[in-house]
Input
Amino acid sequence: MSVTRTCRRRFWLCAITLGLAIVILAWTCGGAALAAAGAWLDIGQAPAQTDFVLVLPGGPDTRPYVAAALVKAGFAREAILLKCRPSADDLVSGFPQGHEVEEKVLLARNVPAEKIHIVDSNTVSTFSDAESLQVFLADHQDATTTIVTNDFHTRRARFSFRRVFGRDARRLYFVSAPTDRYSATNWWRHKRGLKAYGSEFLKLTYYFLRYSSGWMWASGVSLVVISGMILYRSHRQRPTAQAA
Amino acid sequence: MAVDSPPSPGPIAHHPRRRRQFWIVVVLLAGLASLILRYSSSLVIVDERLPAQVDAILLYDGDQRHAIAADWLASGRCNAILLPRRLPDRNQTLGILEPFDVYSRQTLIQLGVPENAIETLDNHDQFGEWKYVRLLRTWLEQHPEATAVVFCDRFHSRETRYAIRHVLPANQRHRVQVYALPSRSYDEQRWWRSRRGAVDYFNALIGLMYASCVGEDPDQPLTWNVDDFEWRLGDP
Output
């Protein structure tokens, strides 16, 4: 039997074994891996005493409830809401804008109207939310803020706010709002969970590529180059080993 | 003798050719990426021939759905607009917000649609993600000769058609068409160039795959108790 055929057989044997191992591993530990990936997104902290609580736009049936609870429990003095840039359809659909819904929730949960600030922003993304808060806090030097968002969104939110605030990000705290029907432990079993977590991983990748600092890019490129060199070297060394 | 025989080419001899093939595939994929992405939108979109005259529009989703429905009604292309009541979220359950169809009704009336041409479909026995199709089934049973067009978001049109095929009996399916309304926020032919387009496409693909592999998303109760959360926060 020629060397070529033997090698090809070995290759297919290895490939099939590896494929089977991956399938078995995914079957048995897949849930644990996905749960770990989901939990990785949540960097939420325990509530701390702050001056403001910011409700990040989105999740109007969870986030403002957490913010209201924080104000009522004395963890924050006032709540901040951001105005988002509405889409063309939002303007004519008749449905209240996001900040209007959030305000209704806060009022319904007995947060006094004078404790609610609506920032006249025009946000379109988590990054522009951070920029809007920075503008608002320019008039409130040394004020601390709790940022409330859904658990799966906290990592991207922290990344964005750190990029915008730099060293001032020490004044920010992140509190996770839970989600209904699914969580980090079972998101892949629910359609809404798949959409929420799936698109979050997509957005997080985009944010890392789009907003990462120079040193993060440099380390990423170095990692790719070093991996490429290692692969290339091992590839080049293979004929010598076989010849020996 | 083995020494004189020509050396076996071995696996290494194939590498340059394989490498060339690999790079050809990479270059081809890169060159055709735009084309592949453009045609990938057809995975989630269905374009159906719309009838010149229809009895009712089921207003479910999609950009400019209210304005287009009002136009159809004004021009006599349809006779009624059906608003399916969606499953309530927490804000609606607690009475903080009205159901979605109430806002839709107000918008339609502002666009000049007479109130008697709008019908809200609701039934407390119907649950699940495809409740709107079940409500339409009931309406079709009550109107045996009637036809309908479902207005939906363009990227969710194939999923909508999938739901119709699974919920409606065979004798009703041909009476319902899907109108896939395009979004003005991005060009569907270049959806990957816009953040919103990419997220919409991704969600539509997940939705379609979930429907194909698992079926309908069940209607599950709200799991988070707000009062309990407040109580625990206030009383550590």
Observations:
- Helices of chain A lie at 3-41, 63-72, 88-93, 98-108, 126-137, 154-165, 191-211, 214-243.
